[in-house]
Amino acid sequence: MEYVIGVDLGTSAVKVLLVDRNGQVRGEWTESYPLYQPHSGYSEQRPDDWVEKTIVALRRVWETAGISPESVVGLSFSGQMHGLVLLDGDGNVVRNAILWNDTRTTAECREIEEKVGRKALLATAKNEALEGFTLPKLLWVKKHEPHLYERARTFLLPKDYVRFRLTGHIAMDVSDAAGTLLLDIEKKTWSEEIARAVDVDLALCPPLVEATALVGTLRPDVAEQTGLPASVKVFAGGADNACGAVGAGILAEGKMMSSIGTSGVVLAYEQSGEKDFAGRVHYFNHAEPDAYYIMGVTLAAGYSFDWWKRTFAEDVPFAEIVKRAAESPIGANGLLFTPYLVGERTPYADADIRGSFIGIDSAQTKWDFARAVIEGITFSLNESVEIIKASSKTIDSVVSIGGGAKSAEWLQIQADIFGIPVEKLKNEQGPGLGAAMIAACGVGWFDSLNQCADAFKQVDAVVEPQSDAVAKYKELFSIYRDVYPYTKEMAKRLKAFRP
Ligand SMILES: Nc1ncnc2c1ncn2[C@@H]1O[C@H](COP(=O)(O)OP(=O)(O)O)[C@@H](O)[C@H]1O
Ligand SMILES: O=C(CO)[C@@H](O)[C@H](O)COP(=O)(O)O
């Protein structure tokens, strides 16, 4: 039996899946790494942590599955998007990576809007200047750490850096490059116009490849460390949301995905790259060549849940917290939560907003708070569902992936808040599966990602919305929506007191 490997470089951990020709997951291994948040709004990771942990996970996955490593024929990647990795001329990392959920770059976003022009930005990059994207981070380093910027010769995104270290080849795939704000989304080339306007040398941009492209094989030293054969074919791979969409079979119009990882994402397939969504949603190239997707992003989805657990119930496992939270009624006995712990993206592009609990009552317990957190995260995702529905897409169901899809109770809350049936897959690791599917097509097992998805995607259950719950959540959602405008100015005034 032959196998392929999908590596998902997430924000909380690297998750490696070993998959056979029938799409059965034969092995899984996860290695976590720290996130550094020295100030409010800052979020960094050490790129070499990603490499070290990926190498450990690649060895452990075949060892624990008890297979011969010689039977692994292909490998590909899915990665957290937008993070800036700067390399010097010798391929060494110049500073810690600045991640997608780092919001220190509001001034740089305004600078991009002013110099490129919002109209030109939306025509070429198809997206607004948001703090999370890569170009504002590049400009921040240029302004605040000029000595480091001068040393930089190339910039990469997180999974591209790991792939470079594993194969020795420098490249960035188009689906991830779409999140830099430097890509001409329709032409799939670096935009000279944007680079010139903000005075960034295009020589910093790496060669572009499709997510499905073969980029090389493993370096001999990496083969030795991982125990895998040096002949393993390595395919570029894509942005985690693009790969999540591949793994969830979002490869045709009318299909939608919700992902609750560290971030929260609601995504829909888009055949054309020529539309104008006026920046209301992110509009990126898919991992499938010549396809696109639109999505809305909640910055702190699983991250809010993580924060709550860390702060109020450290020793209680996630699954147990969800179970206890589900015992609290819909609306958590009158408590509402907004998940703006690190600012927000969709629908409020606001780096200064912070979260709230509204309606605290002496009768509430800590499990009401847990329920409010879970509901608040899902309300935030529902803002994106509403925008996508309004963009004239007919959506019959949503495929749920990510850590948040592990709990049946949370899947029911998603179905009830979205008012749409929610599909649960056998394995919630959509991005890792999508990466494995890219490798499976690359080594010739399938002719197309669509054909591979038909064989690999395994729906475990469909969770139907319950009409009583849908009605109650509709009412709660309208209260939830009022919290942002009422707290916006207060959050700005509190900024001076944040660490
Ligand atoms: N059993 C569970 N039930 C619900 N949510 C969970 C469970 N286990 C983990 N999570 C949530 O999933 C998140 C991790 O999801 P994951 O998709 O692995 O994230 P990432 O890709 O960002 O590393 C955690 O932050 C946590 O909030
Ligand atoms: O910034 C975005 C998408 O624009 C995030 O979705 C990142 O891609 C990180 O994803 P997770 O670690 O939550 O999977």
From TrEMBL:
<dbReference type="InterPro" id="IPR006000">
    <property type="entry name" value="Xylulokinase"/>
</dbReference>
<dbReference type="InterPro" id="IPR018484">
    <property type="entry name" value="FGGY_N"/>
</dbReference>
<keyword id="KW-0547">Nucleotide-binding</keyword>
<keyword id="KW-0418">Kinase</keyword>
<dbReference type="InterPro" id="IPR018483">
    <property type="entry name" value="Carb_kinase_FGGY_CS"/>
</dbReference>
<comment type="similarity">
    <text>Belongs to the FGGY kinase family.</text>
</comment>
<dbReference type="InterPro" id="IPR043129">
    <property type="entry name" value="ATPase_NBD"/>
</dbReference>
<feature type="active site" description="Proton acceptor">
    <location>
        <position position="240"/>
    </location>
</feature>
<keyword id="KW-0808">Transferase</keyword>
<dbReference type="GO" id="GO:0004856">
    <property type="term" value="F:D-xylulokinase activity"/>
</dbReference>
<protein>
    <recommendedName>
        <fullName>Xylulose kinase</fullName>
        <ecNumber>2.7.1.17</ecNumber>
    </recommendedName>
</protein>
<comment type="function">
    <text>Catalyzes the phosphorylation of D-xylulose to D-xylulose 5-phosphate.</text>
</comment>
<keyword id="KW-0067">ATP-binding</keyword>
<dbReference type="Pfam" id="PF02782">
    <property type="entry name" value="FGGY_C"/>
</dbReference>
<feature type="domain" description="Carbohydrate kinase FGGY N-terminal">
    <location>
        <begin position="3"/>
        <end position="247"/>
    </location>
</feature>
<dbReference type="InterPro" id="IPR000577">
    <property type="entry name" value="Carb_kinase_FGGY"/>
</dbReference>
<dbReference type="Pfam" id="PF00370">
    <property type="entry name" value="FGGY_N"/>
</dbReference>
<feature type="domain" description="Carbohydrate kinase FGGY C-terminal">
    <location>
        <begin position="257"/>
        <end position="441"/>
    </location>
</feature>
<feature type="binding site">
    <location>
        <begin position="81"/>
        <end position="82"/>
    </location>
    <ligand>
        <name>substrate</name>
    </ligand>
</feature>
<dbReference type="InterPro" id="IPR050406">
    <property type="entry name" value="FGGY_Carb_Kinase"/>
</dbReference>
<dbReference type="InterPro" id="IPR018485">
    <property type="entry name" value="FGGY_C"/>
</dbReference>
<keyword id="KW-0119">Carbohydrate metabolism</keyword>
<keyword id="KW-0859">Xylose metabolism</keyword>
<feature type="site" description="Important for activity">
    <location>
        <position position="8"/>
    </location>
</feature>
